[in-house]
Every structure is written in structure tokens, then in C-alpha cells.
């Protein structure tokens, strides 16, 4: 990897990279050599990155194409990437309701040498009280690790009616959090598959049967922060949008780095949709999901399966 590439990946200047490398070599901290890395997927990462025009793709090695294994390994990979690329005084947005992000936070080293400025919860907790607490704990734990201020979103992610949402939108604490979304420099988001039974259960039955049927009829493949989209990544307008409090997809697209952390058979279509719509610009996933993505785009890349 050349110095300009290192600078781009770490979001620092090339001059800083050069200075740090010279210093590290002089102190015998770094030795310049070429080794074939184990358990890496450089070619696969590059193919997916170039096809979708992403800033970065990180593929985690995984023993099995199994949910628990995937959560574990992409969590580790996301923690390493986050630790290597977070900048001093970064303003970080994090969505709630994501096992992948929880795994990432749980794998972070607590000895951070630099500090983020704020950790902002960009999606309210939904469903049961336990799930709502999980949303706040995820943001608070990341803030503690990165020595940052916690900015919580004290609201449900989705309301039972537009009237209930309108009332809470006037809450000064909610307004204060929403007004800080434009400061975010890095967003960490999960990518959800379309499983209507799971959506109903996780939402605490706030979603109606008619709304779930609409989601199906509009051919939704996934959601990011409760905003549904099709296989091209085009946002789908539904009545649910009028009952959500949290970041919008338009706001998300304005953030310099949007890191999607997701993997698994049931999420492949959702990830492909998010990539096609450029809803994220950095992907952290597992080797099996990456291969499924490659197989999906292979005809266009003229790659033999």
C-alpha cells in the first residue's frame, strides 16, 4: 500500500504518514517488508469497493456461515477499523437496535489515546423497555470508551400515531439532539433485512398489518434506521415515515463516512440494496456475505462463477 493510500484510509495527510513512518522505522518500531497476509480478502474487497464506488470494504474471516460467528467476527473487524480511523474530536452517530454494532462496541479496546467529541444516538429505541434501554446503553458505552459526550435521543424510534410523534417533536431534549445531526462526521449503522414477523415483534406491535403488507408490496429489501428501501437502494415512501423520529436517509447521505456493519444470509439482499443506493460508503461484512455479493454482481464484472 502506498503512502497516499494509507493517508486516505486513515483520514490523515500524506505528510503525516511519511513523518510517522520515518520515525517508526528509525526507532525500529516498523520494518518495511512484503508478506502475504493470512485470512485477508484483498482482491474481493477491492472488487466490491470498486464496483459500488465505496471508500472502503473490510471483510472478516469467519469459520462458519452462521449468525453467531458472523456477529463475533464482523464485530471484531469493525472495532479494529473504528479504532484505526477515528479522529480526534470526531462527532459520531450510532443507530440503535443492531447486534452487529453491539458486538463492535464490546470488542473495542478501552485504552483509547484520542477522544471523540460526541456520540449521538441517531435512532430511538423501539418496542420493549429492554430494547429502548439497549439503544441508550450502546451510545453511552461507546461514549465512555472514546471519552466523549453522550447525546441521547429520548424518544421511541417509531410512534403509534403521527399525533404522538408531533407532540414529542416539541420536546426540547428531542429537538436538541435532532439539531446536532448535521455535526456528525462518522455514522455507524446496522442494516436490517425484511422479516415481517421479526419487524412486528421488535416494534412492540406498533407496525400494523396493513403497513407490513405495504412494505412487502413495495418490494422492500431492507432498512437503515427504520427507513425502508428497494433492491436499487431507492427509499420507499410509507405511512411509517410519518411516525419515525430519527435521522433521515437524506441526512445520512451528507455524512462524510457512513459505516454499514452487517452480514449473514438473511441480510445479503438488504446489504446489496444499501450499496446500490449508496446509502453507506464503507462496508464491514463477513467472507460468506462478501462472496454472495460478488456472485450477485459477477455477470456485470464478467467474472466466472
Automatic annotation (TrEMBL):
Superkingdom of source: Bacteria
GO molecular function, one term: carbohydrate binding
Gene3D superfamilies per UniProt: 3.40.50.1360, Homeodomain-like (1.10.10.60)
Cited Pfam families: Sugar-bind
Keyword field: DNA-binding, Transcription, Transcription regulation
Entry's family note: Belongs to the SorC transcriptional regulatory family.
Name of protein: DeoR family transcriptional regulator
Organism: Commensalibacter papalotli (ex Servin-Garciduenas et al. 2014)
